[in-house]
């Protein structure tokens, strides 16, 4: 008898479960970042951030429009390649995702954003910092991190006013990101009376910088601005040592401002000359940064690189807008997303008329004792 | 002047590494007329293996001298890469030996992509820092700087070329190689076993790739799963530049390409008053290549059939 009863109960549970299932709605959120190629380590961090947000959302049992929502991440790889980026964007459009988080590189985000805009899917990036992205008037494009104008200008100001340098050289890696941050630095530096003595270029796949660094050396600058990623900045610092240029100040944007940099430069002496800028506050100064990192490390130990918290916030922000609009239809929740006032882990997220983060903070870092440390 | 000297040193070091890789391309091409596009990936596997070995040894034997770790790690990586290249040849190239030339070229590209993907799974996609095993303090020569690692790169290239020349020109194996290069069937009739010679060539190619990979890792300090692609492409260019199939040509092509790149990117901006920048380095190098090839279609030293191996 006992057995029968429990069986009955089990069957009842099954039926109830079936009913609950029917009330459930799956909401797909697309995520794009390079998961292969030289920037795969940064892309993985982003994906972890998004997945963490999805898992936490699922644990909250959110109901939208009377239906229990099951959140699902659709992770895609753009390999930091603009061509693959647009292909993946089209794929997400066709899959009718409710929103997209990404991409990581400005070079892929800008062309992909056109596709999202055309098919009416809101896209929030927490990593692409090229100013152009939000200047194109694409309605569905949002950014929750400071853009390169803020980074480049902040570094130029620091070089001119605090360090009182006279001559600087500029190197960029010819990507949309590198070019953008270096160009703003150059423009602001010249405005502040700094002399730009050398303009050099490399690529985001190069490892040999001896020739351009030697050319820079012949102009004897007090500082070098590098627009590019950490994978190049590391060997570059090591090669500055090799050329006896360890004392030249080395500036860079957020792409090279990582915890990996000391390792990638094999603790080069030049590391002591690095000053780099990152959008947003340091993890320690983010409203919920430390707590976020604790949860992240519990899930993905040792994988935190850079943009994880921003991607996490971007995902949460989309869900928040859907909740407030009480709809997962992009057409309905878009206007609500525009008027977000969201207390994120990284910052308070309010958009300006270009869909850029209002009053985006930036922080300068250096590497005393070979660890990334925020300055004041 | 010291700047020019520095650029020449930069160019020679870079060129030596191209030369080491180009030697591997040229060896294989000389014997079976196959452009082994997976060569760069064998280099990468070698460099990553040596990185793993160095890491393990530094952990298990703290205090062991850097050069000893370096030699042991290189030897182990050579062994791994040799086995790998042997298997690649057996699986991906040998069955296609009598197919049209395009078929093995495509499998070579396939193997290259496969190796990259496998390496990414084994070693994870992140950039890894290769520890400095030699002293990092640079020497100063007339205002220019050169590090012990760079001196080693130059030395190793010279020694590798000398050993290879001796192997090809003065040993029994070398004679078999030259015979196979000329005509595998006739060589077979004369008692040479072409399959064995070809396998040996791939093993030697793997060893050269590992040496080049370790040099690259030592000099630039990073290893990652796509590190073989760009140097591989440049070295292939160097091999064609010097005359593919010719050992001396590979070295001359590599050194020249390195010098052109380094001097080109160092001076192109000043020479053109800032109109062209260092982003035009590759164009500069390839324009030189096009000019040379239009004047001498078979490269600087030509493809002297009897010499190729």
Automatic annotation (TrEMBL), chain A:
Residues 1-22 form the signal peptide. CDD domains: PBP1_ABC_LIVBP-like. The keyword Lyase does not apply. SUPFAM superfamilies: Periplasmic binding protein-like I (SSF53822). InterPro entries: Leu-bd, Peripla_BP_I. Residues 27-355 form the Leucine-binding protein domain. Keywords: Signal. Belongs to the leucine-binding protein family. PANTHER family: AMINO ACID BINDING PROTEIN (PTHR47151:SF2), LEU/ILE/VAL-BINDING ABC TRANSPORTER SUBUNIT (PTHR47151). This is Branched chain amino acid ABC transporter substrate-binding protein.
Automatic annotation (TrEMBL), chain B:
It is found in: Cell membrane. It is a multi-pass membrane protein. CDD domains: TM_PBP1_LivH_like (cd06582). It holds the Pfam family BPD_transp_2. InterPro entries: ABC_transp_permease, BCAA_transport_permease. Keywords: Amino-acid transport, Cell inner membrane, Cell membrane, Membrane, Transmembrane, Transmembrane helix, Transport. One of its GO terms (biological process) is L-isoleucine import across plasma membrane. The chain crosses the membrane at residues 12-35, 67-88, 100-123, 143-168, 197-218, 238-259, 271-295. GO terms for cellular component: plasma membrane. It comes from the Bacteria. Its main location: membrane. Belongs to the binding-protein-dependent transport system permease family. LivHM subfamily. PANTHER family: BRANCHED-CHAIN AMINO ACID TRANSPORT SYSTEM PERMEASE PROTEIN LIVH, HIGH-AFFINITY BRANCHED-CHAIN AMINO ACID TRANSPORT SYSTEM PERMEASE PROTEIN LIVH. This is Branched-chain amino acid ABC transporter permease. It comes from Comamonas serinivorans.
